[in-house]
Structures are given as C-alpha cells and as structure tokens.
Design goal:
4 helices, ABM_dom, monooxygenase activity, globular
C-alpha cells in the first residue's frame, strides 16, 4: 500500500471553510484505478492544520493518477477557491510505502 498525506495550515477561522470545500469535493480520485480511500484529517490541537490522507494499492497507481487529466482538473480548481486566503495555501506532501501491517 502507498499513502500520500498533503498537509496545509490555514488560519483557524478558515478551517471550517476548507472542510466545507472538501465535503463537496469532485470525487474524481475515487474512480482512479488503484485508489483505496480518502480522508480529511483535522489536527486535534491545531484546528487550522488539515491533512488530506490518500491510500493507494501501490505507488504506480498513485503516479498514474498524478499524471492524469483528472488530477490536473482538480488542482486547477484549487487555484480558483472563492477565498483569497485559501487560494495561496501550499501543502506539505509526504509519501509513505506501507512496510508492515
């Protein structure tokens, strides 16, 4: 299994706005071959820290997704967030290979 976490930090007063955006997400990734699951995580102590957690069958499927037209579409939408404070967020991406269960 391959896991990708994208963490952003937004002003705490904007956390609910970002959560609302993800609740209405396009779900294009859900249809990608090898995709397992999506979760949006909120830090228990820092409400403005949110992590998109994606699980894939393997790294190759993830890389296929990153190269896909749908991936590019989703990330173009992020540039058009209605809120200027959210438009400029840059995620810290961390990738993991699951080595034991």
């Amino acid at each position: 299994m391959f896991i990708v976490d994208s963490t952003v930090v937004v002003p705490e007063h904007k956390a609910d706005d970002l959560i609302a955006i993800y609740k209405k997400r396009s779900r294009l990734v859900d249809e990608a071959p090898g995709f397992i699951s999506f979760q949006l995580l909120q830090n228990d102590r820092k409400q403005g820290e949110l992590t998109v957690h994606l699980e894939w069958e393997n790294k190759a499927y993830y890389l296929d997704w990153v190269r896909s037209k749908q991936f590019k579409e989703i990330h173009e939408l992020e540039k058009r967030y209605p809120d200027e404070e959210l438009q400029g967020i840059v995620p810290k991406v961390t990738k993991y290979e699951v080595v034991a269960l």
